[in-house]
Amino acid sequence: MKKQYAFLVDTERCIGCFTCAMACRNYYHQVEGVVWRQVYPLSEEIYPHRERAFLSLACNHCENPACLNVCPVEAYTKREEDGVVVHHQEKCIGCGNCIRSCPYGAPKYNPVEKRAEKCSLCHERLDAGLNPACVQACPTDALQLIDLAEFERTNEVQYPAGYPRMEELNPSTRFVLPKTPKMVRR
């Protein structure tokens, strides 16, 4: 397998603090209403416990990205060296094909620029030997950068409950699911 960078979201460690989302926003200064990383609490239907669990989500940097495949002006590229899907906003014509095609909602419309934009896994930081801003900021190491080609698989999953199962896209993000809380009887 070729090198493929991916996010590992450990819901056992995530405390829902939104530091990852704030770090992304602080680094890229997205306009109001445009968010590249979002933190969602798991619904009670999926995780019916008093303790809460969260998913921190951004672009999945899919193996076969829908955004790249539908873009009429080649505003997306997938880097050969690490599998990161990069959006080149200067090429974007704002047609919205990528926004409508991504089942994970990663590309967002920027109403000021009148173009799409999305997480590009801080590729410029990766090139400088740094972690993405969201990964670096996580205070509990719940969000990690992994290389799927070298990642030692243990208990992570690709499609947690409630997450669109799109095998033809093969999203790279992996998840460690929350454990059932232990009951203590007194």
UniProtKB/TrEMBL annotation:
This is 4Fe-4S dicluster domain-containing protein. Coiled coil: none annotated. It comes from the Bacteria. CDD domains: DMSOR_beta_like. SUPFAM superfamilies: 4Fe-4S ferredoxins (SSF54862). InterPro entries: 4Fe4S_Fe-S-bd (IPR017896), 4Fe4S_Fe_S_CS (IPR017900), ET_IronSulfur_Cluster-Binding (IPR050954). Residues 5-34, 51-81, 83-112 form the 4Fe-4S ferredoxin-type domain. Keywords: 4Fe-4S, Iron, Iron-sulfur, Metal-binding.
